[in-house]
Design goal:
206 residues; alpha/beta; Rossmann fold; 8 helices; 7 strands
C-alpha cells in the first residue's frame, strides 16, 4: 500500500449561519484531490470530538436534489457541530460514493429505469461503495484529535476509521426524514448496505 501523505496548505476563517469555523485545505499524494476540514473551536488534544465525514454530493449539497438525503445530512451535521463546543466536518471529494459525477448521473438514469442505487453502480461496473477513508483518518490525526463521536448511520465509516487508528467513542445518528423521491435510495441503504436508518416496516417491504 502506498504511503499516504497529506499537507494542510492553508486555513481560513469561515463565518456561517451555523457559527464560525476554520476551513482547512488539504493536499495529498493518493488521489490528487483537495479535501477539506471545517473545524469548530479547539479540537487538538480533545477526546470525544463531534465529527462528520461527508462525501461530496454536488446534486444534493449544492442543487438541493431530493433523490438522496446528502444535502440535508450536511446541513444537519453542520448544525450539530455548530451547537457543540468543538467539532469537525471532513468534506471528502468522493462524488457518487467514489465513482465520480459522470458515472453518478448515469446511475441516476438506471435508477429511473428501475434499478436501485446499489444495482445501478454494479451495472456500470463499479462497487456499491468505492469510498476510502484513509485520508479522513490522516486529517483527524493532523488535527490531533484523540477520539471522536462520529455522526453517521453507516457502520462502514466506523470500521474504516478504526482500521486506520482513529478511536470512535460512539456513533451519533443523523436522520433527516424520507419522502417519495428518496425512499428507494434509503431503502437500498438499509437493505443492501446495512445503514442504521429508521424506516417503517411497510416502507421497507414495499
Amino acid at each position: 500500500m502506498k504511503q499516504a501523505r497529506i499537507k494542510n496548505t492553508v486555513c481560513a476563517r469561515i463565518p456561517t449561519r451555523y457559527g464560525e469555523f476554520s476551513l482547512h485545505y488539504y493536499e495529498n499524494n493518493l488521489d490528487g484531490k483537495e479535501h477539506l476540514a471545517l473545524v469548530k473551536g479547539e479540537v487538538r488534544g480533545h477526546e470525544g470530538v463531534l465529527v462528520r465525514l461527508h462525501s461530496e454530493c454536488l446534486t444534493g449539497d449544492v442543487f438541493g436534489s431530493q433523490r438522496c438525503d446528502c444535502g440535508q445530512q450536511l446541513e444537519g451535521a453542520l448544525r450539530q457541530i455548530g451547537e457543540a463546543e468543538c467539532g469537525i466536518l471532513v468534506y471528502l471529494r468522493q462524488e457518487g460514493r467514489g465513482i465520480g459525477l459522470f458515472k453518478k448521473l448515469q446511475a441516476y438514469n438506471l435508477q429511473d429505469q428501475g434499478l436501485d442505487t446499489v444495482d445501478a453502480n454494479l451495472k456500470l461496473g463499479h462497487q456499491a461503495d468505492e469510498r476510502d477513508y484513509r485520508i479522513a483518518a490522516l486529517i483527524l490525526q493532523d488535527l490531533e484529535v484523540h477520539s471522536v463521536c462520529l455522526i453517521t448511520n453507516n457502520p462502514k465509516k466506523i470500521r474504516e476509521l478504526e482500521r486506520y487508528g482513529i478511536v470512535v467513542d460512539q456513533r451519533v445518528p443523523i436522520e433527516v426524514g424520507h419522502h417519495s423521491e428518496n425512499l428507494p435510495y434509503l431503502k437500498a441503504k438499509v437493505e443492501k448496505m446495512a445503514h442504521l436508518l429508521t424506516l417503517k416496516k411497510e416502507e421497507k417491504s414495499r
